[in-house]
Amino acid sequence: MSSAKKPAKIVPLTRQTLKGVWAALIVPWTDRDELDARRLVKEVRGYGGTGVSGVYTGGTTGEFYAQDDATFAKIAEIVCTEAHALGLPVQIGASALSTRTTIQRIRVAKKAGADAIQLALPFWLELKDDEVKRYVAEVVAAAGKTPIILYLTGRSKRKLTPELLGELAKKHPTFIGTKDTGADAAGLQAMLKAAPGLAIFGGEDFYVRVPAGGRGGYCSITGFNAPKVVELYNLCAAGKLEEAKPLADAMHRYLYEALVNPLVKEAGLWDSAVDRIQRVAGGGVVGVRCQSPYRSGTQKHVDGVIAWVRKNTPELLPAHLVRR
Considering the chain, what is the average pLDDT of its residues? Predict the structure, then answer.
């Protein structure tokens, strides 16, 4: 598919414009573990009018590791077409175990019309500094004018120092941002000191991150209630921290008491399953099925999340669950 012309209202992504709340898209699977394109279209359209700054694919939430080439290409095509029709920019996750495969997927993503490429470092073997530099140089060259965002995850087996991050940012202007949910406020500020202007994102912890210079969040909680996550971000970005504090506390409780403790620590589910559970609870049509061999959640888990929120943090309930 050749790239369709993007609506004029989609602002090109740069270190200055990359900000806000980005929603992680979940891939719906059929009972045969194949892409359910019809439901994926609905998943993308579900974020229209929610206030999110954009959508992205290919992280843990989107189970990038379970996608063959044909599935990856179809996902990129559908997401770019549907999101651009809503005026939402798209980051296509193209992470892979080798630079060669990553570059192949970058080409596919660019052809589909991706506004940026999001990449984790190859993760089977831990990269040395010179290998990180080589990888970034090669993927930046392959992407051309399309910007790159690095997903700095512990699953890549190594942490980039602020100094190395600064070196990469200085050398590659189209490397515009990072997702780094593991850095605290001090760590974020150290990265910004080494790489001024880089758009550094976390998760939903805007109350801590934004005052320290964070630019926004790549958020799985948007799956449950995107407008509420956007509300928290907007309050923090406007410096209204006192007003934001109760909502930030409610989301922190929700994250740990409704998701992490019962679903991760007790039920032993991975992030991909938990994100599906909260997306279905939030009204999404993606289903709870994860790709084998990973364990899936159940409708009982979905009902448990809804019941917990209704009892403990009703202010977080999405509109369709609010009792009239």
Answer: 94
Other CB atoms within 10 A of residue 312 CB = 14
The residue extents of the domains of the chain are: 20-321
Q: Distance (Å, rounded) from C-alpha 4 to C-alpha 195?
A: 34
Cβ–Cβ under 8 Å, residues 103 and 142:
yes
* Angle, alpha carbons 41-285-74 (nearest 5°): 30
Contact yes or no for 80/113 (Cβ under 8 A): yes
Is residue 320 exposed (0-12), middle (13-18) or buried (19+ Cβ within 10 Å)?
Answer: exposed
> How far apart are the C-alpha atoms of 226 and 242, rounded to whole Å?
21
Task: Give 226-274 pLDDT, tens digit per residue.
Answer: 999 999 999 999 999 999 999 999 999 999 999 999 999 999 999 999 9
Residues contacting 236, CB < 8 A, separation 6+ = 206, 207, 210, 211, 244, 248
> In DSSP terms, which residues pair with 67 in a beta bridge?
none
Its CATH architecture, for the domain 20-321, is Alpha-Beta Barrel (3.20)
